[in-house]
Amino acid sequence: MDTAPDFYATREMLAWLVEMGADEAIADQPVDRYALPGESPKIAAPAPAPVEVTQKPKPARLGPLPEVDAPAEAAALAASAQNLEQLASVMEGFDLCALKQGARSFVFSDGDPAARVMIVGEAPGREEDRAGRPFVGRAGQLLDRMFGAIGLSRSAPMADQAVYIANVLPWRPPENRTPSDAEIAMMLPFLQRHIELADPEYLVLMGNTPCKALLGQAGILRLRGNWAEVTGRPALPMTHPAYLLREPGAKREAWADLLSLKARL
């Protein structure tokens, strides 16, 4: 026959449990202490069995994106233009030339499109970028005086006394740097279409960049004064007015070139 547990021994055991940190009685099942009085205690549902997670297959790695042929895109856009207004629109919307991102203005042309003489420059400078017109800085003022000396002006009311002015690039290169060969090749189809639509009798290529673009040659001091042919039209390479501002002694040769143009006209 079992004897009742000794009171003192039980108390000593309880004190030892408290000293060891057992300060709460734990039943066989958890008790829901938030249940209302009279409700049966809720028994926690057993934990769900672990679900085996399968690793999703990685998507196939795509190869490098195909490079865009910028000159071919420019050629297609240029061919779609049926007049100068359309050409200006497709050029201004052409986003493959990085120069567009840093330029303030799109510089298309100035003067009379019906003029007999079309002047092709390099690219806008700081003043041109601000004004949105080609040749408006100091070099542009000298250009106006040069052609005014042989009776031509961009503001002339009559087409036979006017000039039409455009550039190889319609956006200013950073710090007025020389355009790269890639930039020239990219924008060349637009320039060629520009010449076709304006249809001048004579071209004047101002500086190395237009000669490189349209003649495939550089060395303006060697090329200047020697008539060439571009898209079936006579073309005269000349030193750029900016060069003449730095080298005033070269104005004599520039005057000889202007007289050669006047004789043709």
What does this structure look like?
This protein is an alpha/beta fold and 265 residues long. The protein is 39% helix and 10% strand. It has eleven helices and six strands. The chain has helices at residues 7-19, 70-80, 84-92, 99-102, 126-131, 138-148, 181-198, 208-214, 220-223, 241-246, 251-264, and strands at 109-111, 117-121, 163-167, 202-206, 228-230, 233-238. It has a six-stranded mixed beta sheet, with helices on both faces. Helix 2 (70-80) runs parallel beside helix 7 and helix 7 packs across helix 8 (208-214). The protein starts with 6 loop residues before the first helix and ends with a helix. The model has no long low-confidence stretch (mean pLDDT 89).
Short descriptors:
265 residues, alpha/beta, 11 helices, 39% helix
Quick recap:
This protein is an alpha/beta fold.
Summarize the helices and strands and which ones pair or pack.
Layout: H1 7-19, H2 70-80, H3 84-92, H4 99-102, E1 109-111, E2 117-121, H5 126-131, H6 138-148, E3 163-167, H7 181-198, E4 202-206, H8 208-214, H9 220-223, E5 228-230, E6 233-238, H10 241-246, H11 251-264
Parallel strand pairs: 2-3, 2-4, 4-6
Antiparallel strand pairs: 1-3, 5-6
Helix pairs in contact: 2-3, 2-7, 7-8
Strand order of the largest sheet: 1-3-2-4-6-5
How many distinct helices? 11
Fraction in beta strands: 5-15%
Task: Assign a percent range to the helix content.
Answer: 25-40%
Oligomer: single chain
- Uncertain runs: none
Please tell me what the overall shape is.
rod-shaped
Distance between the termini: 141 Å
Radius of gyration (Å): 42 Å
Largest sheet: 6 strands, mixed
